[in-house]
Please model this.
Amino acid sequence: MIHYEVIIYWSAEDKAFVAEAPELPGCMADGATYRQALANLEVIIRQWIETAKELGRSIPEPKGRLVFA
Model:
């Protein structure tokens, strides 16, 4: 199960929903629907983590909801 914060928004330029996991740099996916973007991001998050492990890089712990001042 994925525990990272996810941000999903509509991109008029791409004509697609974009889903990002801000705690994992560069981790994002898109989809024609909100749910498809989220499902695609879940795959990308798993791949991001697998790649980080293979390369010996640190994997950030999920912080949950981010708060901005």
